[in-house]
Design a protein that fits this description.
16 strands; six-stranded mixed β-sheet
């Protein structure tokens, strides 16, 4: 069907009054107003799917662009290897392989990538747990933060297996515990007695 009288530039298929530049309607969703920034609206009364069909050895996906770059971001599926990849700033950043394994990629001189998990205590306080893979310094940092502040390193494991607690560069032994006033290692039995 043609566009509405108020905006003849809009294209409607299955709808007399398109809610966007292109509005394809298979059935009524019950939502009368599409999002104000939508250029294309695909509407149906039940399940609704976009199907990309491509060659058996090719990518299929969505590419995001702007005035500076026509592929600044992307989501793509590689059919012969069966992996899904996500890209930002023109480079692949994350991949889910055919077995469901997830990898986050890093490149350049500062080869660090961080996985952040955020939560709240039921009010406004934000709690953060982060795992940082530091390829440049060959170590993994586990960070904790609260109150909305930056997460600080609490435990580090370097490439040789040395572990640092409150120490991001363990060098004095396989286990190094740093504290402002004292360092204590406590071993507690289920009965409550402590040795250390």
């Amino acid at each position: 069907e043609g566009g509405s009288a108020g905006d003849p530039a809009r294209l409607g298929i299955g709808v007399a009054a398109p809610g966007a530049a292109m509005h394809i309607k298979e059935g009524a969703s019950g939502q009368g107003t599409p999002h104000s920034q939508a250029t294309v609206v695909l509407e149906d009364s039940g399940e609704n799917t976009i199907n990309f069909l491509s060659g058996a050895t090719n990518f299929a996906g969505i590419v995001f662009g702007d005035s500076g770059d026509n592929d600044i971001g992307f989501i793509q599926y590689k059919h012969d290897d069966n992996y899904l990849r996500f890209g930002t700033n023109t480079s692949e950043r994350m991949r889910i392989d055919s077995s469901g394994n997830v990898s986050v990629n890093a490149s350049g001189s500062d080869q660090k990538r961080t996985l952040n998990v955020h939560g709240t205590n039921g009010s406004s306080e934000l709690y953060t747990f982060a795992i940082e893979a530091d390829g440049e310094n060959a170590k993994t940092n586990f960070k904790v933060g609260s109150g909305g502040g930056a997460a600080a390193t609490k435990l580090t494991i370097d490439s040789t297996g040395n572990v640092g607690i409150n120490c991001d560069n363990p060098t004095v032994g396989q286990l190094q515990i740093d504290h402002a006033s004292s360092s204590t290692l406590a071993l507690t039995r289920t009965a409550g007695a402590t040795t250390g």
